[in-house]
Amino acid sequence: MENLLQNLMSTEDLADNFKESKPSYNAQEALDEANRCLYCYDAPCITACPTGINIPSFIKKIASGNLKGSAKTIMEANPVGASCARVCPTEELCEGACVLNDSTKPIMIGDLQRFATDWAIKNEQVLFKKGEKNGKNIAIVGSGPAGLSAARELGRMGYEVTVFEGKKEAGGLDTHGIVPFRLPKDISLWEVEQVENVGVEIRTNVEVGKDIFTDDLVLNYDAVMLAVGMSKVPKLGIEGEDLAGICDAIELVEETKNKNYSAEFAGKRVAVIGAGNTAIDGATTSVRLGADNVQILYRRTEAEMTAYEFEYEFAKQEGVEFRWLTAPKRLIGDNKGYLKQMECVQMELQETGSDGRRRPVEIQGSEFLIDVDIVVKAIGQTRHTHIIDAFGLEHNGGVVKVDPETYLTSNPKVYAAGDAIFGKGIGEAMVVSAAQQGKETAYAIHQQLVESRTECV
Ligand SMILES: Cc1cc2nc3c(=O)[nH]c(=O)nc-3n(C[C@H](O)[C@H](O)[C@H](O)COP(=O)(O)OP(=O)(O)OC[C@H]3O[C@@H](n4cnc5c(N)ncnc54)[C@H](O)[C@@H]3O)c2cc1C
Ligand code: SF4
Description:
With 457 residues, the protein is of the alpha/beta class. It folds into three domains: 35-122, Fumarate Reductase Iron-sulfur Protein, Chain B, domain 2 (Orthogonal Bundle); 137-231 and 383-456, FAD/NAD(P)-binding domain (3-Layer(bba) Sandwich), CATH 3.50.50; 246-377, FAD/NAD(P)-binding domain, CATH 3.50.50. The chain is built from 17 helices and 16 strands. The strands form four sheets. Strands 3-2-1-4-16 form a five-stranded parallel sheet, sandwiched between helices. A five-stranded parallel sheet has the order 5-13-6-7-8. Strand 14 and strand 15 (399-400) form a beta hairpin. Helix 9 runs parallel beside helix 11 and helix 9 (145-156) packs parallel to helix 17. The protein is globular and about 70 Å long. The termini are far apart.
């Protein structure tokens, strides 16, 4: 009984660790912050936001108590504006451009954006209406920020839009991949509902390429948009990878988004391989699952890590340790097949490679062992090449090639946006940029279909 009670208590504690960690503004704090805004003419923050939200306008509406108007201004420009309020690297975007950086501190745009959109969520606001039917239909593959943003804009323009989503719930990485203590799932699911409110049909549990043929989509719809994002974390490609105790950072986060808190991490030594945002999420999730020691191993140095500065700072505050210039070489198990040690090797950086980054090279004879119970892989993401090939699209190693203005692929009926077109030095993997590309794709599809209608007349 006592053991059972302890287990129940620890599950509750774990659930607590995954609640949203940053408190939201109360009404007075929001008002005080809104009143600091200078409402600049030609405000640089608007240009710095990839979705071009009219930031002074939404802040002014908070100051005047028009919270619905404020939320509408945000969501009009950014269909995933409630998620972005929590996950955008604001220091590098809107807040980084605020003129107050030169004197005091920037306006906390993300926090104000969260205040206004949270109000709309709590008050069950329906912000947009569907457009009058125009007789054209569009298929969108994938319901992440790119697919949802395109769907919402097309729905408002009167298109009959069907979104096909392989998972059981829509929302892409906002729903499944970004840690719940920064972005709770309900926020993203509210954005999904807003898209459904403009008449968009979202068919979940339907994997295109398996449950529906790609040719059928191309044949039966006026245009198709590919918004499948990226796929799993690749294999490390080292000996011992099949041992028990090796997991994928994205799958690990997804479990916690679904409120499945693994008991395997409690008191364990965890090594996370990689140093991007996924690695940070894998590491901080491990800490919150009760790991005793969590270290991030990266084959380059702090200067080359790709994680956002605020994510890096957050990981350090959570007690995550960093081992630079260190790469895994071999995973070693015990006689029951459980991971117990990892052989690592010291690296050094040599000349700059074709990707513009200095090349890490092993230092001969520098191998050493560390004791470890769990390894979390976070070395990037593979591509959905099978589906790209099934559509017969030109791509560069899984990065779909598109016209940068129209997002049109090598197939004149198929468009692509979001993480599916990110990589090989092109674009950025961010929620806000996927949202903007989704909107732009919707306008490009509309332009093409309007033009073809005009030609027929
Ligand atoms: C761990 C992690 C943390 C991140 N943190 C941040 C952050 O803090 N801030 C930030 O701005 N960005 C962050 N990102 C990046 C951001 O999440 C992505 O850039 C963004 O979600 C890309 O949107 P998307 O719509 O292109 O793809 P996704 O969000 O990946 O959505 C693609 C959707 O397509 C579906 N799909 C795939 N194949 C098929 C198929 N064949 N049939 C049907 N459906 C299919 C998938 O299930 C998925 O739902 C993070 C990414 C990861 C992995
Ligand atoms: S969407 Fe992101 S970048 Fe744009 S204003 Fe909001 S927090 Fe800033």
